[in-house]
Prior knowledge:
four-stranded mixed sheet, 12% strand, 10 helices, alpha/beta, two-stranded antiparallel sheet
Amino acid sequence: FEDFLKKIDLQKYKPLREIKTVEQDLPKDLRPLEIYYKYYWETTDFKDFDEIFQIYWNEKLNPQIYNFIKKYFYGCSLKFVEEGFKARLYRIWMSVLTQFHFQYLWNALFAEKLVSNPDLDMMGIDAIVELGNKRVAFQIKKVSYRREASERRFTKRQQKHADVFVEVPYLVIDIDKVKNEINKLEKSKTKSGKSENRKEKLENILKLFNENFDILENGFVIFKKEYLMHIREIISEKLKTNKNISIITYNEILQI
């Protein structure tokens, strides 16, 4: 799977990141998860994005996309709507590929294998594994160094499938930007407690990133095996406490 990730031409799809015309909630019959799972998880027939989008478009155009157009884009050209869908599905595709890398790596490292499917995904559960007598659910959470507050609520629907919910932080940072800011703070003639704290925080973020993630030559950020071993160890230690733990938040995994 990593070999496939290495071959993705991220620069080719960079313009899609700026297009945000299809931002409405997609109805279940327009979500691409079943197609993504089919080609990247249930089989190893890994396709590039252009090909997978064409499969989606041909399958969903009539009547699902036409119905969506009537509701939200009446009068717009089909090309305009297709461009918007392609950009939306690209963002979902990148997130799903990141999730699948975590899952493939976990299954390669540990005897306890992850279970993952579109139905769980649509409930906010990326994967489930049985550890001891507990069902542990995972969700990959994109986190920046601005430290978003954890808003995770373990819903009653999710509780039917898992005993413990784990947020797995996936650091999204601009390495060059962070390094430049650290250099500026180091060279600054007017040092204050606030700037020192900022510099220390940025250095910690950079350290956490380098310890737990790798950047492929094309820019795709993947998980290191040491990170997953760290996550596995934290879960095991938490479960040993015999406390009624329902959620392990991302800041318990990485001190950001």
